[in-house]
Design brief:
By secondary structure, this protein is mostly helical. The chain has three helices and no strands.
Length: 77
Protein backbone atom coordinates (compact mmCIF):
# COMPACT_ATOMS: atom_id res chain seq x y z
CA UNK A 1 0.00 0.00 0.00
CA UNK A 2 1.32 3.40 -0.95
CA UNK A 3 1.21 6.28 1.50
CA UNK A 4 1.15 9.85 0.24
CA UNK A 5 2.51 12.94 1.92
CA UNK A 6 2.06 16.52 0.85
CA UNK A 7 5.19 18.64 0.49
CA UNK A 8 5.92 22.15 -0.70
CA UNK A 9 8.20 22.57 -3.68
CA UNK A 10 9.27 25.49 -5.81
CA UNK A 11 6.73 26.33 -8.53
CA UNK A 12 9.40 26.20 -11.24
CA UNK A 13 10.35 22.66 -10.17
CA UNK A 14 6.69 21.66 -10.19
CA UNK A 15 6.20 23.11 -13.67
CA UNK A 16 9.27 21.27 -14.98
CA UNK A 17 8.08 18.02 -13.37
CA UNK A 18 4.67 18.50 -14.95
CA UNK A 19 6.17 18.98 -18.41
CA UNK A 20 8.61 16.08 -18.09
CA UNK A 21 5.93 13.82 -16.58
CA UNK A 22 3.69 14.34 -19.59
CA UNK A 23 6.45 13.45 -22.05
CA UNK A 24 7.54 10.42 -19.98
CA UNK A 25 3.97 9.18 -19.33
CA UNK A 26 4.32 9.53 -15.56
CA UNK A 27 2.33 11.36 -12.93
CA UNK A 28 3.88 14.54 -11.54
CA UNK A 29 4.56 12.73 -8.27
CA UNK A 30 6.03 9.82 -10.20
CA UNK A 31 8.35 12.18 -12.07
CA UNK A 32 9.61 13.76 -8.87
CA UNK A 33 10.10 10.29 -7.32
CA UNK A 34 12.06 9.26 -10.43
CA UNK A 35 14.30 12.32 -10.15
CA UNK A 36 14.81 11.61 -6.44
CA UNK A 37 15.85 8.00 -7.14
CA UNK A 38 18.35 9.14 -9.78
CA UNK A 39 19.67 11.88 -7.51
CA UNK A 40 20.10 9.51 -4.60
CA UNK A 41 21.88 6.93 -6.77
CA UNK A 42 24.12 9.68 -8.21
CA UNK A 43 25.11 10.83 -4.72
CA UNK A 44 25.80 7.23 -3.68
CA UNK A 45 27.82 6.58 -6.87
CA UNK A 46 29.61 9.83 -7.79
CA UNK A 47 31.91 8.03 -10.23
CA UNK A 48 29.02 6.95 -12.49
CA UNK A 49 27.51 9.20 -15.19
CA UNK A 50 23.93 10.26 -14.45
CA UNK A 51 22.82 8.91 -17.85
CA UNK A 52 24.15 5.46 -16.88
CA UNK A 53 22.28 5.62 -13.58
CA UNK A 54 19.03 6.64 -15.29
CA UNK A 55 19.33 3.87 -17.86
CA UNK A 56 20.17 1.32 -15.17
CA UNK A 57 17.14 2.27 -13.10
CA UNK A 58 14.96 2.10 -16.21
CA UNK A 59 16.24 -1.37 -17.02
CA UNK A 60 15.42 -2.56 -13.51
CA UNK A 61 11.77 -1.66 -14.05
CA UNK A 62 11.46 -3.64 -17.30
CA UNK A 63 9.63 -6.97 -17.14
CA UNK A 64 12.15 -9.78 -16.73
CA UNK A 65 10.25 -12.11 -19.08
CA UNK A 66 10.89 -9.65 -21.93
CA UNK A 67 14.60 -9.22 -21.28
CA UNK A 68 17.46 -10.52 -23.38
CA UNK A 69 20.03 -12.53 -21.45
CA UNK A 70 23.53 -11.07 -21.32
CA UNK A 71 26.13 -13.10 -23.18
CA UNK A 72 29.76 -11.98 -22.87
CA UNK A 73 31.58 -11.39 -26.17
CA UNK A 74 34.04 -14.13 -25.30
CA UNK A 75 31.19 -16.66 -25.34
CA UNK A 76 29.46 -15.43 -28.50
CA UNK A 77 29.99 -17.66 -31.50
Amino acid sequence: MSVSTSIRIDQALYDQAKADAASEHRTIAGQIEYWAKIGRAAIDNPDLPVSFIAESLASLSEPRDQSTPFVPRSLRG
